[in-house]
Amino acid sequence: MDGDALHSIGELARRTGLSVKTIRYYSDRGIVTPAARTPAGYRRYGPDAVARLALVRTLRELGLGLDTIRKVADRELPLPDVAAAHVEALEAQIRVLRLRQALLAAVAERRLTPEETDLMHQLAQLTDDERRRLVADFVHAVFDGLGLDGVARNMTPEPPDASDPGRARAWAEWAALAQDPDFRAGLRRALRDIAAEQPRGGVPRRDFTAVVRDLVAPALAAGLDPASPDADPVVAAITAEHGRTDGLLPRLQRFNDPRRDRYVQLLAVINGWPAPESLAPALDWAAEAVRVRQA
After folding, report:
1. Among 20, 1, 4, residue whose Cα is nearest residue 12
2. Is the pTM value of this prediction over 0.90?
3. For residue 115, how far is the Cα from the chain centroid?
4. SS (H, E, C) 20-35
5. Exposed, middle or buried by CB within 10 Å (0-12, 13-18, 19+), for 290?
6. In this predicted model, what pLDDT tens digit does every residue of 239-255 receive, in sequence order?
7. What angle do CA 179, 131, 256 make, to 5 degrees?
8. What's the N-to-C CA distance of the chain in angstroms?
9. Neighbours of 44 (CB within 10 A)
């Protein structure tokens, strides 16, 4: 078969690996047009049809639509421009798929209910402006009027990186937690305690929970029983830090909210900070040590 020969659909199918039905469909759509017809009306295609169909097959495998492919093949659209637009569309699809993967992983890992799953999905779809408004509303509700601007900055998430599924998932879970009225109220009570202890001017006092963690750390490392008399000096130091004769146990229990630990963990993921140490073991130990002595 020489270079000027015309090809039947069957011959094109053998040369390109496409089915006769597919080639006929492409022909009907004007993507590859017959150069002539036989007296019986059968289509015959020119020598360029093989290369054209090879291009069509490649572009279809890359996900381009048939109308776009026809325009590229006819030189109506520059292929690099089409490719650039397609890359952008694929990147958007990949971001969506990564987010879906992250949310489904959260559902499995956190054992979320259908309602919690729906909420996280909705939060993950928020626009940048909606996310900023949500964060501003949370910061206002929790920190307004307490004079803890530095603490507020350290507890505020940055805009999430949508290309990072881990951060996107963490942000959606953070947003769900930040909208919980009970969590907001408990966190504000704890922060109000911190604000009340800060001196007017001078060096700010350390977070009470951080002090408790440092005081209890050696006892935890040594495996010291909180009910043991050897724990008395640690309890005395915590009581002195508390600075009052009553209310220590409720304060320790109030600060030992697992949702606060989770909040800090999520914040670290979103902002790209090192994973924080959980305060729960130290607060558990301190609360038990105080409880047995009060009893």
Report:
1. 20
2. no
3. 18
4. HHHHHHHHHCCCCCCC
5. buried
6. 998 888 788 998 898 88
7. 35
8. 102
9. 17
